[in-house]
Design brief:
Length: 320
């Protein structure tokens, strides 16, 4: 898997399977978003389809070039921006799989496989369990909890971790706080590199300090985040940044901070009982999972504020 950065353990495993000619007929690439799972799936497809090498891809043969252009007849990719992968797409895929005019290996890559709706997933179950000869499925997801359990149980799971910072730096050019805040995800680093991210980060810092210090009234605080609540992606950034900042406060004596340039301002907040910080951290994690299931974002922020405040300042609970 030349040219794919990081994930050495995964690459080794795939390489061994190729060498032994034991690539599982259905795999589930599972791990955080934006770390290269889909790219690795295409790399594996290229290796399986390469006409010059059986253990990797050469990158030069006509098969490899066709895969790179996305035009190889043996490569079937499902990759949609839509919220769901529906029945029609599953049907289309099955039709292509049953065409008999192609005799070589076939690789089906389904990106964001958690988007397969129940019908589409059920339609594919049988072929995933018993694919035609020389047919390989690679399903890719960052949301394993949403994968249909019937599909998951028919695949061999390959776990991906975050990318190492050095690789993330090579891929995105990110540095400093962006690099340390991106959690090893190219997608996230790219989000953070956008102009408004530094403003979001400062907004996250001020709003967190405000909660920890109970500096503002409920209404003032909620109003300050009103624009953020309108934008799911921005709210995601704020929630993740809050968690990083809490971690920075929590471990400030023995670990370098993600947001070292903002530490002086963050430290205004009296840390006090560290267990309280952990509880606030958990509340934010919960808000993150809620956000994924498309709740009302304004309400999410409001209830989050009340919960955080009642932990940090239980004595003020009645004073909203
Ligand atoms: Zn090749």
């Amino acid at each position: 898997m030349k040219g794919i950065l990081g994930h050495d353990r995964v690459k080794q495993g795939l390489h061994q399977a190729l060498v032994k000619n034991q690539v599982p007929h259905a795999q589930l690439f599972l791990g955080p978003e934006g770390v290269g799972k889909f790219k690795m799936a295409l790399g594996l497809a290229q290796a399986l389809l390469c006409s010059e090498s059986h253990v990797d891809f050469c990158g030069l043969c006509s098969s490899c070039l066709q895969v790179q252009r996305g035009q190889h007849p043996g490569l079937l990719v499902v990759n949609t921006e839509n919220a769901q992968i529906k029945m029609e797409e599953a049907r289309e895929l099955l039709k292509k799989l049953h065409l008999r005019n192609w005799e070589g290996a076939r690789v089906v890559v389904i990106n964001d496989a958690h988007k397969l709706n129940l019908q589409a997933g059920n339609a594919l179950l049988k072929v995933i369990e018993e694919p035609p000869e020389k047919t390989y499925f690679v399903l890719v997801t960052s949301q394993p909890g949403k994968i249909l359990s019937t599909i998951r149980s028919r695949t061999q799971v390959v776990r991906f971790g975050p990318l190492e910072e050095k690789h993330l730096k090579t891929i995105t050019g990110a540095d400093g706080w962006v690099l340390s805040s991106a959690n090893g995800s190219v997608t996230r680093a790219e989000q953070l590199l956008q102009d408004e991210s530094d403003d979001n980060r400062k907004l996250a810092m001020h709003s967190l300090v405000d909660v920890l210090m109970a500096q503002k009234t409920y209404l003032q605080w909620v109003e300050g985040l009103q624009t953020i609540a309108k934008d799911k992606a921005q709210l995601e950034v704020i929630l993740e940044t809050w968690k990083q900042m809490l971690r920075d406060l929590r471990v400030q004596e023995y670990k370098p901070a993600h947001h070292s340039d903002l530490m002086v301002e963050l430290q205004q907040a009296p840390v006090g009982d560290l267990r309280k910080l952990d509880q606030v951290f958990q509340i934010i994690s919960y808000m993150q999972t809620q956000l994924l299931s498309n709740v009302d974002r304004q309400l999410l922020l409001e209830s989050g504020y009340l919960k955080m405040k009642s932990i940090i300042h239980p004595e003020q609970e009645s004073l909203i």
